[in-house]
Amino acid sequence: MAADRCDLLALDLERAEELRASAIEPELAEELSELATALADPARVDLAVALREGDELCVCDLSWIVGRAENLTSHHLRVMRRAGLAQSRREGKMALYSLTEAGRALLATLLDGASVGR
């Protein structure tokens, strides 16, 4: 028997049924998974941290801060924007980005979890 498997159907079937009935909807699980995926890249975590600290930054500054090419930085920011974790606005020739409340909350949760695990 593998350590992560059980030979029984359920030890506490009544509790297991209650928890199964209260599980989140598949659509919500998909949405949450997409949010988590949007920060599932070290470059995007770096960008999120920079945006948290800098509040609103242009792509060129963000690129320099995280040490990545501007086109790659733009790609990662688009992923974050599509997921609703970042927002952008144009000011002349500059594209300015900032974190949304959802982006700030997810980053805070990840950072809090990382500090607990140490």
Q: How far is it from the N-terminal to the C-terminal residue, by CA?
A: 31 Å
Principal-axes geometry comes out as: elongated
Instruction: Give the overall pLDDT as a whole number.
Output: 88
Largest sheet, described in full? 3 strands, antiparallel
List segments where confidence is low: pLDDT < 50 over at least 5 consecutive residues.
none
Helicity range of the residues?
55-70%
- CATH level-1 class of the domain at 41-106: Mainly Alpha
Structural class: alpha+beta
Number of distinct helices:
6
| DSSP strand tally | 3
Give the CATH architecture of the domain at 41-106. Orthogonal Bundle
Architecture overview:
This protein is of the alpha+beta class. It has a domain at 41-106: Arc Repressor Mutant, subunit A. 61% of the residues lie in helices and 13% in strands. It has six helices and three strands; from the N terminus they run H-H-H-E-H-H-E-E-H. It has helices spanning 13-21, 26-38, 42-54, 59-66, 70-82, 101-116; strands at 56-58, 86-91, 94-99. The protein has a three-stranded antiparallel β-sheet. Strand 2 and strand 3 (94-99) form a beta hairpin. Helix 4 (59-66) packs across helix 5 (70-82). It is elongated, with a radius of gyration of 19 Å.
